[in-house]
Amino acid sequence: MTTTIHSARPETLTNASVPEEDSAADKIKSAVADAGEKITDRATKLQGEATVQAERAVATAADSVEDLQAGLNEVGRRAREGVEKQPLMAVAGALAVGVVVGMALSRNRY
User: Fold this and answer.
1) Closest CA to 17 of 29, 4, 6, 27
2) Coil, strand, or helix at residue 4?
3) Using CA atoms, how far apart are residues 40 and 32, in angstroms rounded to an integer?
4) CA distance 98 to 78
């Protein structure tokens, strides 16, 4: 955009066209556009970092679940072996646990 400047002095009676400086509104628009680009770039970077961290968390959780499952399988295997070796002890232990739980529940009701 250009602005025509007319000289008021008679010795310099010329019409000159000079580029108009950016208006304040144009400067603000440019600054807002630059800020928007920076925000978008930063948000994209943060999204990528969050995705990587989420993937790591999922992998860690999956490993933990596998470890827990392996531990529970081992406990179950040992319990089965114990019951097979000493079935009467297993029944007596289950009966004792039942009596204790029954006594605890009956006390809470009164």
Assistant:
1) 4
2) strand
3) 12
4) 21
Provide the CA 68 distance to its chain's centre, in angstroms: 24
Residues 86, 84: Cα–Cα separation, whole Å: 6
Vertex 94: Cα angle to 88 and 97 (nearest 5): 140
Contact 82, 75 (CB under 8 A): no
Specify the pTM.
0.47
**Per residue of the chain (110 residues), what is the pLDDT tens digit?**
555 555 555 555 555 554 455 688 888 999 999 999 999 999 999 999 999 999 999 999 999 999 999 999 999 999 999 999 999 999 999 999 999 999 888 876 55
Element (H, E) at 18: strand 15-19
Its sign, for the CA torsion 79, 84, 86, 92, is positive
Task: Round to whole Å and give the CA distance between 47 and 60.
Answer: 20
